[in-house]
Model the fold of this input.
Amino acid sequence: MTSESAPLSGIKVVDQTQALAGPYTTMILGDLGADVIKIEKPGIGDNSRQWAPPTIGDQSCYYLAVNRNKRGIALDIRAESGRAFMRRLVKDADIFLTNLRTTEALQRHGIDYETLRAITRRLIYVSISGYGRSGPRAGQPGYDLVSQAESGTVALTGAVDGAPMRFPTPIADMTCGLFTVIGILAALRARDQSGSGQFIDMSLQEGQMTWLANLAGEYFATDADPPRRGNRHPQVVPYEAVQASDGDWFMLGVASDNVWGAFCRQVGREDLAGDPRFQNNADRIANYDALLPIVREIIRGKPGNEWLRELRAAGVPCGRINTVAEALGDPHVIERGFIVELEHPALGLIKSLATPIHLADTPLVYRRHPPRLGEHSDEVAAELGYNSDEIARLRADGVLA
Done:
């Protein structure tokens, strides 16, 4: 399968972002077939190139994880000739992304919305920042960790009597990236109808706050701050981690009264299904303290794998608590092609996680290794009409590397 058959084939993306939210967005666009041109600072590159260890060779694993399916150029947009290069690059682009945080910095480098829109009105301009381009905190620096904290999610995460706990992966960055992809796809569709691009304003803080979802609904209804509950679910019981006789933990998800009945039959305790304290979900929530010790004692009666086999056969949702190694080694995950393998000219075979979108007729294509710093500078310059002497001059001036 070639990129020409992918859904975003023919879409040109100019990616002037670094770290995670922006690069994660553009990697997905690249997986969907877009031609993504990644712009980095000469000699320095994307900040994530320095986020190590671990590394593969001299490349940060962090950088390698979110930068496949892109062409890379090293361009200094502080110089006028660099800004002129950028204008040529944007002229026939469909999408431009930046995560420079202040409007002043964008204007200084000639990559603000008004300047680039004057070049092409079809341009979809995407700004990713900590707090968005409006409001009292616009322009303040924003980071994943801070967004997790300010969103309310860190206060809700961890053991009930423990310290606040951040999510172990950059969930605010990745969530913002996912919503940015959705916004871009919507803007492309709108452009099909109007012929005009538009400005997209994305905020790490708002993306992370979407994880409140049902908890925000709870607060709006009750005006009470939801407490930290650990593994306990506020609206479904039993729906949490349990420990088997061999010490293995697994998640048990009894999310409906029908499943509760199936669970009780499978474990040989049909009396529990008829117990007026536990007959429906509202009863089980009200009598949580009475029910959970019973459930935990039942689960302690057999090894974890035995329970998983029996409960799954009975239609009761459950799953072992895998380590990262166990999750990535799951035969089901491997069979569905979720581990991407790409050959890198300097590092050999590198692996990353696929984008979990399975399109039957226009599948995603994994075709390019994460670019080395400036790997495609000459190639892209030539496509823009620069001749060999002009490219050599840009290199000699340190504008292109």
DSSP finds 19 helices and 13 strands in the chain. Residues 107 and 115 are 8 Å apart (CA to CA).
